[in-house]
C-alpha cells in the first residue's frame, strides 16, 4: 500500500492526442492504399449553419484532419437565418454525390430549424455521425449492428480499450443523456457488457451514484461538475466536456475546461483524460474512421 | 412508526388485472364508437411459428382479449420447421391488408429463422409491438416519438402511474436487458426522467445495486432471482417474470413464478405486482391500445 499525501497525483493521464495520431496514421495508410488500388479516396461533406464559435473550431479541426489523412472534404456554409429548404437542398446534393461517403450536419443547428427532420433526410449509408434513429435503434438492440457508431462514444470506448481497461462487468456511470453523447455512450457501454447507470439533471444524488463507478464518462456540458469526492478511489475517468471558460490571459480570451474538476480528480482517479487532448482528438479520428469504412463499403474495397 | 414482525406483509399489491380491465373497457368503448361512426373496427394479425406452450398461452390470451374488446383478430400458424419465406409471405399479406392495423410475430421464433430479418419486413405503421429498430431508436432519442411503445414496458409504466408512483427523479433498476422488455423499459423510464441502472448477467453485485432502487423492474426470466434482501425497504417492485415451475398439484402441471421471491419481497417492498395478475394482463391491454391507436391513425379517426 502506498502512502498518499493530499496533493499527490495518483492518476495516469490518457493521452488521447497520441492515441488519435496512431489511428490517423493507420487511416492515412488505408486511404493511400485505396487511392493506389482503385483511384478513389473517401469524401466527407460538412454542412454548417451559422457562426457558433465552438462549431467553427470543431469543423475546422475536422477538415484539417481530413487533409492530413488524404480524405477529400467539402463544406457548405449557410447563414444563421437560412431556410430549412436550403439545408435540405445541400443535404440532398451530398446524398446524391457518389464521391461523398460521409455527411456531417454540424450540431446544434439554430433553433428555427427542425433538427430531427433534417437528420431524417440524411442518407443512412452516409450518416457517419450515426445520429439517425435507425442507426440508434440498431446500436441499442442486441443481435443488430449499426452502420455507424457515433464518433464521441466510439472514441470514449477506444480510449478505454487502448488504455487496457476491461469494460465487461464494470460499473459505468454516464453523466448526461444527450442524443449525441450520453445516450449512445450508455448503449455502447452496454454492448461491451458494462453495468450502466445514466445520470441527468433530475438525478437526486449524482455524487453518490458516481462514487460507485469503476468507469465515469462525464458528458453533461457543465464545467467542473464532477468533484474529487464524486469519484471512487482508482476510478477511470473519461471527460467529454469541453467548456470554454473566459480567461483574458489565454490566446483566444478563453480556455477549455472539462466536466471534471481535473486537479481534484487527478488525486483520486487511476486513469483520466485531459481537456483538451483527451476525447476531442479521438472523436475526430473516429469520424475519419467511419468515413473510411463508408467509402470501403461503397467501393466494396477491403 | 409501525412495528413489523418478520412475517408481516408491508407491501400493497398492484392489481394489474383490474387496472387492465379498466383500460380494456375504455378500448371496447372506443372500438364501438369507431364502428358506429365509420363502420370499421381495428384488426390485429398474429403470426405464430411452432408449438411453444408458453407462446400458445400468450397468443390465446391476446386473441381472447381482442374478442372481448371487439377488435378483429386473425392468425397464421406455421409449423416449427417452416421456411423463412413462409413467414415473410404471411407477413407481406398482413402488411398489405388494409383491415389489419397491428401485426404481431410471436417471439421467440425457432432458432433457424432470422428474427431481425423478419421484423425488418413488418410494416412500421403496423408494428404494434414496437420492436422495429426505427421505433426503438425513436424511443431512445429525446425530441422524437416512436409510433408504438413496446407493450410490456408501456404496461409497467402504466402500472406505476395508476398506482400513484412518481417516476421523475427516482432511482430505477431494470434487471435484464432483452430487446423485448429490459432495453425498451430502461429507455422508457429515462423518458420519464428516472435515474436508470441496467443489470444483466455480467453484473457483479446485482443485489447491491438493486438495494438502492426506489423502483425495481425485474425482467430477467429467472424464477425467484430477486430476494427480499435485494430490496430497499419501501421499494416499488414490478415483476415481469412469468416462469413456469413444475407443480403436479396444479391444473396444468405447472404454476407461474415471477423473477421476484414474492413472499420475501412482500415484507420489504411498499408496492408489488403479483405473478400472475400483474404485468401480464397490462401487457395485453397495451397491445390492444396500440392496435386501436394504429387503426385510429389509419382511418384518421379521433
Strands of chain A, count: 11
By CATH's scheme, which homologous superfamily of the largest domain in chain A applies?
A: NAD(P)-binding Rossmann-like Domain
The percent range for strand residues of chain A is: 15-25%
Rg for CA atoms of chain A: 20 Å
Strand order of the largest sheet of chain A: 1-11-8-7-5-6
State the CATH topology of the largest domain in chain A: Rossmann fold
The chain-level structural class of chain A is alpha/beta
What kind of oligomer do you see?
homodimer
Helicity range of chain A: 40-55%
Number of helices of chain A: 10
Tell me the series of helices and strands of chain A, N- to C-terminal.
EHEHEHEHHHEHEHEEEEHEH
Average pLDDT of chain A works out at 95
Description:
Chains A, B: Residues 14-129 form the Tetrahydrofolate dehydrogenase/cyclohydrolase catalytic domain. Chains A, B: One of its GO terms (cellular component) is cytosol. Chains A, B: It catalyses: (6R)-5,10-methylene-5,6,7,8-tetrahydrofolate + NADP(+) = (6R)-5,10-methenyltetrahydrofolate + NADPH; (6R)-5,10-methenyltetrahydrofolate + H2O = (6R)-10-formyltetrahydrofolate + H(+). The structure is a homodimer of 302-residue chains. The longest helix of chain A has 23 residues, at 16-38. Chain A has two domains: 38-127, Rossmann fold; 150-280, NAD(P)-binding Rossmann-like Domain (Rossmann fold), CATH 3.40.50. Chain A contains ten helices and eleven strands. The mean pLDDT of chain A is 95. In chain A, α1 runs parallel beside α10, α2 crosses α10 (279-299) and α6 crosses α7. A six-stranded parallel β-sheet of chain A has the order 1-11-8-7-5-6, with helices on both faces. In chain A, strands 3-2-4 form a three-stranded parallel β-sheet, with helices on both faces. Chain A starts with 11 loop residues before the first strand and ends with a helix. Chain A is α/β, with parallel strands linked by helices and 302 residues long. The first copy, chain A, is globular, with a radius of gyration of 20 Å. The A-B interface holds A 115-116, 132-138, 140-144, 168-169, 171, 177-179, 183, 187, 190, 193-200, 202-204, 209, 212 and B 115-116, 132-138, 140-144, 168-169, 171, 177-179, 183, 187, 190, 193-200, 202-204, 209, 212.
Amino acid at each position: 500500500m502506498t502512502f498518499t499525501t493530499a496533493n499527490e497525483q495518483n492518476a495516469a493521464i490518457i493521452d488521447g492526442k497520441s492515441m488519435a495520431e496512431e489511428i490517423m496514421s493507420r487511416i492515412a495508410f488505408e486511404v493511400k492504399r485505396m487511392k493506389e488500388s482503385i483511384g478513389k479516396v473517401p469524401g466527407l461533406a460538412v454542412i454548417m449553419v451559422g457562426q457558433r464559435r465552438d462549431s467553427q473550431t470543431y469543423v475546422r479541426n475536422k477538415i484539417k484532419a481530413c487533409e492530413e489523412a488524404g480524405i477529400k472534404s467539402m463544406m457548405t456554409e449557410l447563414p444563421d437565418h437560412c431556410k430549412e429548404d436550403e439545408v435540405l437542398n445541400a443535404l440532398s446534393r451530398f446524398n446524391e454525390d457518389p464521391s461523398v461517403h460521409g455527411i456531417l450536419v454540424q450540431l446544434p443547428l439554430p433553433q428555427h430549424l427542425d433538427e430531427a427532420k433534417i437528420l431524417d433526410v440524411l442518407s443512412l449509408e452516409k450518416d457517419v455521425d450515426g445520429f439517425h434513429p435507425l442507426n440508434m435503434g440498431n446500436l441499442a438492440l442486441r443481435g443488430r449492428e449499426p452502420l455507424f457508431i457515433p464518433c464521441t462514444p466510439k472514441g470514449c470506448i477506444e480510449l478505454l480499450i487502448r488504455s487496457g481497461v476491461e469494460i465487461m462487468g464494470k460499473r459505468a456511470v454516464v453523466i448526461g443523456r444527450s442524443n449525441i453523447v450520453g445516450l449512445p455512450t450508455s448503449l455502447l457501454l452496454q454492448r461491451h457488457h458494462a453495468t450502466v447507470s445514466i445520470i441527468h439533471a433530475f438525478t437526486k444524488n449524482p455524487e453518490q451514484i458516481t462514487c460507485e463507478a469503476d468507469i465515469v464518462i462525464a458528458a453533461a456540458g457543465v464545467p467542473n461538475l464532477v468533484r474529487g469526492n464524486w469519484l471512487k478511489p482508482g476510478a477511470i475517468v473519461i471527460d467529454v466536456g469541453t467548456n470554454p471558460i473566459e480567461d483574458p490571459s489565454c490566446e483566444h480570451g478563453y480556455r477549455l475546461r472539462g466536466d471534471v474538476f481535473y486537479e481534484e480528480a487527478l488525486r483520486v482517479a487511476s486513469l483520466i483524460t485531459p481537456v483538451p487532448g483527451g476525447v476531442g482528438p479521438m472523436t475526430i479520428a473516429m469520424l475519419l474512421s467511419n468515413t473510411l469504412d463508408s467509402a470501403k463499403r461503397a467501393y466494396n474495397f477491403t
